[in-house]
Each structure stands twice: as C-alpha cells, then as structure tokens.
C-alpha cells in the first residue's frame, strides 16, 4: 500500500491512530496528512441553518482538489472518507450532494462530491439539479453571473420534517449552498444544514 498523495510506501510509517480522525483505513502517509489543517469551522445564518467546514483551504487542499477534480484521480476520495463519515453519520438526516452543472458533468467523468460520499459509504439522495437559465436578450454580466447557480429540486420531498444536509467540496462565498438551501426550503424543508470539506481561511 502506498500513500495516495506522494506514492511512498505506507508500511513503515508510524500509525497515527487519531490523526485527522483517520484510523485504520488510512490511505495517505502522516507527512502528507499533516499538511491538511483541521478547522471544524461552523457558521449559521437564516437560509443555511449551519455550515460545518472540516479543513482549511490551504496549499495542500488546493493541490488535492486539483488532482481530484481536474486530473480525475477518483482514488483520492478515500483520503477524507473517515472524516466525512464521522460528521455525516446521523441516519435521520438526509444527505444531498451539490451536483455539478450538466455541462461540467459531460466534461468530467465523475461527480467529485458523489465520489467523496461513496468512498465514505454515506447514503445520499441526489435531489438537486443545477440549471442555467438561457440568457435571452441583453443581460448585464452581473445578472448573468447571478443566474449561473440555480438549482431545481428533481424529486419529491418525502419528509420536510427531516434535516437535510448539503455536501460540497469547498465553501467559498456560500452562494451555491444558499441557493441550494433555498430550493429545498421552497419545497417545504424546514432545516437545511451543510458540510464542506474545505473553506478558505485568512492567513494569520
Ligand atoms: Zn504521502
């Protein structure tokens, strides 16, 4: 077994049992894992009842996402499986991945958020579809940008009493997650939370 990030053999590495919450199914070496900074940053607002971001979006995170998303290295989904499982292990909550835009889905071979959840063995429901309204007539650039992240709920909401948890790889402005939460709330969902793997932090 070799480290998924640096290809070094994992055999002679010390076992860092609790490091980053990653235990027996460790898929990267401690030297690589040490570069990820666990932050467990939580915010709350009106639309998103809570957003929990697990790690800082630092250099290691940037490299990871590049390799994972654009180089399509699906094995990398394993690295955060245990961390994600530990925060998404409530079977009463309904896990909803943020989908890719259909255009991107054609270009990439897999949805990275779905892959993260599958690696973590977390059941999820793909309730959302990303849409871009066709731009008719003259719209300003800002109007067009504002329209790029709309979501449609594609299935019936069976229980609006349940807590829905959106999952995305990174929290940046929160616009994507807020739009997705709004789409669910318009269908009667009362509480929408979110979990993201990364979130940018200000340098100290
Ligand atoms: Zn490594």
Can you offer a commentary on this structure?
- The protein has 204 residues and is an alpha/beta fold.
- It has a single domain (37-199), classed as 3-Layer(aba) Sandwich (Rossmann fold).
- The protein has seven helices and seven strands; from the N terminus they run αββααβααβαββαβ.
- It is globular and about 50 Å long.
- The mean pLDDT is 84.
- The structure holds zinc ion.
- Zinc ion (ZN) binds next to α1.
- The site of zinc ion has 8 residues, from α1.
* Helix percent band: 25-40%
Uncertain stretches of 5 or more adjacent residues:
none
Number of helices: 7
* Elements, N to C (H/E): HEEHHEHHEHEEHE
Give the cofactors and ligands: zinc ion
- What structural category do the secondary elements indicate? alpha/beta
Domain Phosphoribosyltransferase: 164-200
Protein name: Phosphoribosyltransferase domain-containing protein
Organism: Sporosarcina ureae
Pfam family, one: Pribosyltran
List the helices and strands and how they pair.
Blueprint: H1 30-33, E1 38-43, E2 50-56, H2 59-70, H3 81-87, E3 94-97, H4 102-107, H5 112-119, E4 128-131, H6 141-146, E5 150-153, E6 163-170, H7 175-186, E7 191-199
Zinc ion (ZN) binds at residues 3, 5-6, 8, 28-29, 31-32.
Protein name: Phosphoribosyltransferase domain-containing protein
InterPro entries: ComF/GntX_DNA_util-trans, PRTase-like, PRTase_dom
Family: Belongs to the ComF/GntX family.
């Amino acid at each position: 077994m070799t480290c998924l990030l640096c290809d070094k053999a994992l055999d002679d590495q010390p076992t860092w049992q609790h490091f980053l919450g990653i235990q027996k199914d460790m898929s990267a070496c401690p030297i690589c894992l040490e570069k990820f900074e666990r932050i467990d940053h939580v915010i709350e607002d009106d639309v998103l009842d809570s957003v929990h971001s697990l790690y800082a979006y630092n250099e290691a995170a940037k490299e990871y996402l590049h390799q994972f998303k654009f180089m399509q290295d699906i094995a990398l989904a394993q690295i955060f499986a245990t961390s994600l499982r530990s925060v998404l292990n409530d079977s009463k909550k309904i896990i909803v991945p943020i989908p890719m835009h259909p255009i991107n889905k054609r270009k990439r071979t897999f949805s990275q958020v779905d892959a993260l959840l599958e690696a973590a063995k977390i059941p999820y429901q793909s309730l959302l579809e990303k849409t871009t309204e066709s731009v008719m007539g003259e719209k300003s650039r800002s109007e067009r940008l504002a329209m790029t992240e709309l979501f449609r709920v594609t299935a019936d909401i069976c229980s609006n009493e349940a807590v829905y948890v959106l999952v995305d790889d990174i929290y940046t402005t929160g616009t994507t997650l807020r739009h997705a939460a709004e789409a669910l709330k318009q269908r009667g969902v009362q509480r929408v939370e979110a979990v993201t793997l990364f979130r940018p932090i200000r340098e100290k």
